[in-house]
Amino acid sequence: MSTNALKAAATGGAVTRTNEKPKTLDQLLASPKIKAQMALALPRHMTADRLARIATTEIRKVPKLATCDQVSFLGAIMQCAQLGLEPGGALGHAYLLPFDKRQKVNGRWETVATEAQLIIGYRGMIDLARRSGQILSISARTVYQNDKFSYAYGLEETLEHVPNETGNRGDLTHVYAVARLKDGGVQFEVMSRADVEKVRAMSKAGSNGPWVDHFDEMAKKTVIRRLFKYLPVSIELQQAVVLDEKAEAGIAQDNGAALTGEYSVVDDTPPPSLANDEINPDELLSGFVEAANVAKTVEELDAVYAAVAAPLASHYDVLQQVTDIHGTP
């Protein structure tokens, strides 16, 4: 077995089969191996079946997602799983959008691939912030022309907002976010409509997707993201902000890195037995050591050991070395 195949065993990935026709994204999402990877990353309140169904629904709502590079799409789904966020507009946690990757070809800009990008919604940002344990509450509000609104920074910071509930509130003028910390402190950030529009203008997705369909929510997310600079946040939230900033700037998120194991086309048929391969004990030993180094759990290490133990049965000296490394008595 190759070192790459052993690494795939170590991380729960599928053995690559490049001679098979790629499946559709719908089929890949239904794959037990993809669902198994999702399940490993998901928090307790979510299931792999639910995430797969939601992702399939998003493909039907945004047909261009079906044309996305499969690794980028599955990687974006895996990022959702790792962050514990549901994609789609139902909760407003996150959105999956297709982005055309353009490069110069013979002096002309051409679309060379379509990749899926993960955009975090403001409710997703709030959900992640609350998980840090240091933030008691965080909220964002939009301000309109006919509301009563004032704020001041400095030694005596103040913020007052009284919405006009008796008539037309007018156009959106400001957006603000407030966080109450566990130690009793309060932080807030205010942005004008012009400030938000500047951020939108720099976004690759500024003319479509959530910026068009859910402008108020994107404005709230923008001010929340700015507020995060002054708050104690978790690693997951930092990761979400980085992903979101890349999506806004049109920079590749490298979502494929979220997939474990080697991936090109997932195949649900079992790989051929090692017993049928030509056994090279030294190569298997070297591959085992390298794959063992990337195994993150005892179960993953056991999977690698099981993959090499049987074919090494007739090579006792090498098997003993593998057993010693594995720690099996």
Automatic annotation (TrEMBL):
One of its GO terms (molecular function) is DNA binding. Transmembrane segments: none annotated. It comes from the Bacteria. One of its GO terms (biological process) is DNA metabolic process. InterPro entries: RecT_fam, ssDNA_annealing_RecT. This is Recombination protein RecT.
